[in-house]
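User: Predict the full complex structure for these chains.
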Amino acid sequence: MSAALLGIGIYGLSVKRNAIRILFAVELIVNAANLNFIAFARYMNPPRISGQVIVFYSIAAAAMEAAVGLALILVAFRLNSSIDVRKLNKLKG
Amino acid sequence: MDLIPPDATFVVLTTITLLGAIMALQAKELIYGAISLAVSFIGIAGFFVSLDAPYLAMLQIAVYVGAVVVLILFTIMLVRREEADKDESGETGESAAGLWIAGLLAVSIAGVAALAGPNLPTNPPTADLPITQLGSVLARSYPVPLIILALLLSGALLGALVLAKVDR
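Assistant: Here is the predicted structure of the two-chain assembly.
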């Protein structure tokens, strides 16, 4: 299940050209990892709470990453009037 | 190797999550994609509930469905509509290559998991993981990461503000 989610995420990351779609894909990958953490921690004997702690951090970090990513997309759009990552090939603004 | 038949909850949640994820990437309009992403996140929250992590399920819904997806929707609306909807994938060869890479990766991970399958317990050990324990572990055992996380969060939000600021 997690592997499938990761697969979809990697597919999106490698194929899509729209920056927002790429952000979707990254979020999917992070979620696959979170799910694994929780599941494995739950199936340990005795179950560990540490998995949930890690996912707590991970959710916060992912939210942060989304905020920064969207801000970057906005700036890129303002500078380039496009969010197609294959057109964002200028390093000089 | 005989696989244990998955129960109904797992099947339903898997369907919701995977369909949401696929729709998020393939939907014609970006707005529908964002909503499908929210559906997928809700499916994952369902998994968290079924894995005895109700607090994280709540956090997942509040943070992802509540904050991240709304943020994405706002960005989609700020970026011009026609620009946001223009979402062709690459050429067909490129997209086939991406599909191959992703498929190989997923199959190989699933294969490794299936090989390790017999060694894993099929039934989760029964134990309750109360929320209070999560809180105390968070505060007692991992205080430094918590503080670092707080600093990181505020730094990132400030950075996002600075980035998005319009120079007048």
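Chain A has a mean pLDDT of 73.
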